[in-house]
Amino acid sequence: MKTNFLLLIIFLILSTACKKKEEKPELSYYKGQLTISTDDSFKSVVEALADGYMIAYPESEIKVKTQKEDLGFLDLLNDKSKIIVMSRELSPDENSEYEKRVELKYQPARFAADGVVFIVPKNSSKSEISVEEIEKGLQAESKNFIFDGTNSSNLNFIAQKLNKKPSDLKFSIINGNENVIKELNKYPDKIGVIGWNSISRPYDKKSEQLREMIKVLPVKQNGKLYDISPENLRKMTYPYTRVLYFLINESGFNLANGFVRYSCTQLGQKIVEKEGLQPYNLYGREVQMR
């Protein structure tokens, strides 16, 4: 009887050991895999930050997934994504839904000032555009403005500036910022609407080639012209300046939070500056003279 009882105890111990769950991989800010969802309009700066992070932390692997802004937000809510990049403010309903489903407070991690720009072919006689012309044109049946797609950050941002829904605006579509630039010559009377980061890298050969194909129009507001210069981005005087920020679906200080912190530190902000954007967090420089 005792023998049977001992055999039963041994059997239970062995069974428990066999059923033991596999240990989850250790969560950390410096190693592991992470996919960042970003709109095509600011893919460049996100890729640059990801490359910088992987150099700083070689055990990390960060992939950048290009996805329309609205679809990325839905993936974040449904726990299909741990981190996304946004450029527009959330509506009260979206904010409430985020805090309910993600169970985190809405705390946007702002890291760069970018802008939406209006472009025409290089040989166009048009040299400027006004805020009033933009507002009026987006209500016209002629659909003279070409966006990079529905659910995109550029369309969302402009609609929000006009206090409209994207569906209320009238526009044409060519998918992708780069394609808008390359195909704009086919539509000489149209105006392209793209994200500045698509062409903002000062010394990048591809960006230079794309800039050579188009003319970026300064925007007139209240009788004054504003171009998308670093100063106007810094002061946010360019009428269509927007602030890029990260939203996460991660508790604890793991890879997503680690990446956010890195992007907002001095090193990450230098990468933002090299991308031709305005760093959101400014760091003073001390010089000691002897």
Q: What features would you highlight for this structure?
A:
290 residues; 2 domains; ten-stranded mixed sheet; D-Maltodextrin-Binding Protein, domain 2; alpha/beta; 11 helices; 21% strand
Descriptive account of the structure:
The model is unreliable at 16-23 (pLDDT under 50). The radius of gyration is 24 Å and the shape is globular. 37% of the residues lie in helices and 21% in strands. It is built from 11 helices and 13 strands. The chain folds into 2 domains: 32-112 and 243-279, Periplasmic binding protein-like II (D-Maltodextrin-Binding Protein, domain 2); 114-241, D-Maltodextrin-Binding Protein, domain 2 (3-Layer(aba) Sandwich). It is an alpha/beta fold and 290 residues long. Strands 1, 2, 3, 4, 6, 7, 8, 9, 12 and 13 form a 10-stranded mixed beta sheet that branches. A 3-stranded mixed beta sheet has the order 5-10-11.
